[in-house]
Fold:
Amino acid sequence: MQLDTKPVIDAIDRLIAKANSDLENSLESEGYVAAKDAVIYINSIEDGITALLNDNTDNLLESLKNEKNVSEFISGTWQQIKGNTELPEALEKLFFEKFDEMMHIFTKSWLIKEVPVLANVDDRITKSGEAFVKEWSSKLADLMHLSTNQQIENILIKAVKNNWSIDDLQKGIEDSGIRECGYRARRVAVTETLRLESYAQLESMIQNPLAYKKKWKHVASAHSRENHMAMDGQEVFKREMFTLTRKDGATYMVLCPRDISLPAEETVNCHCIMETIQDENIFGMSDDELKNLRQEMMDEADTEFDNKGND
Structure:
């Protein structure tokens, strides 16, 4: 008897669509731009990460079929697998493609929101913005690769301690939840999409002739961080650093919410955003003057970036 799975699949699709709709509405209410695009990217990154991590685990399980015992696997095959660059390279490719697209889309959206007359300008970003996308794509891929290897090594330690056979190890990996990476992939996808929103907002401020200062705006969540609540209203010039103090007293100088210098406990599930403070002295400029000034600001930022690279 063949079961009709279409009603079940349709029901799951409706639940996912509802979750996506709720997230889109939430992001819009919090002040994020291009919320619909953001949700699309969250789902795309989540799917991409899940596929890559599952393939990585499948290859690991396949390699175990030819092993005699756990000790030989750890000293031999595992050392080769651990040093393999296939997963980090694939993750970096995924991240760079998505982050680069988001950086352009979100920057233009933030710019149009603040200065509608710039709607017809190109979507170019500064060299510092390009460097962020490239460097963070690579670093995040390496971090995820190391984290994945650590998960596996924790199982291997358990296998040695309990004298597991290869069959035991294979079952231990299958039952460990490594292949059930949905939550991990979703968490990374949401955090990184919101991180790109912050860096794109920062990029738009660099391009925005009216932007003078930036203000940290705390967005309440189910588990709001007290130190982020304390940040609410802090103002600095648009290219300067905010001061963020952790609960333990450690201080970070950051450009924006979810700055890449921050540890995961300060970025995961953070929905904080920034507010642009405009220079009233520039009000009254013509559309062409604003466009030309935007170009000058970008050229200045690029020159500064090049000079730093030559120091």
